[in-house]
Amino acid sequence: MPDPAKKPRRRQPRSLGREERTQALRQAIVDSAIAEFAALGYGGASLRSISARTGIELGHLGYHFSTKMELWQAAVASIFDAMPKPADQPVAETPAEARATVARLIADYASFCLSHPEHIQIVFSEAAAGGERMDWITRHYLNDIVSGFSHHIEAVHRQGVLKTIEPAIFISALVGISAINFALPPLRDVLMGGGIGADALAKLLSTLVEGPGE
After folding, report:
1. Which of 22, 100, 119, 149 matches a 20 to 30 Å C-alpha distance to 10?
2. Does an H or E element contain 154, and which?
């Protein structure tokens, strides 16, 4: 029988292997870069400041990312890879599915804005500047996202249960209202008198596409 006087040995936490430590540090650098680029834009961000945010020497950052542009691309990819993809949702084939599809698209994007407001700040900053970085975001992410949303809205129109609204108008309203609410607090407070939660935002946006009597 075990001796009650002896204390049970605590299991030691498993130490991370070299590859796991490397990946963890790389992600920590990316997370710091996301915060830096969102707050200061590409021009205002610096690798030295991102290193300081991460708690490492500048040389350690250079081991993982050789250029500022490479790190910026990794930061943007990390954000957008976490976004629910409209193309992954099944296309509506009935009126009930049409309503559910719109509600799901709105709710997914509102929740994403709540958890990743940096994507709005970065995209808006690059859209204002124009150039190769905005082209990169558009090519790698925005074109597919817009295409996915448009495909769903067109399918919903065919069911005849929602207002006939151009996909571009729907997407612009979705992004604009979500951006103001989650990523632009000073403007939000002026226009909306304070923020609203993801559920309330989804309900608000759904009024843009609900048909009469819905």
Report:
1. 22
2. helix 143-159
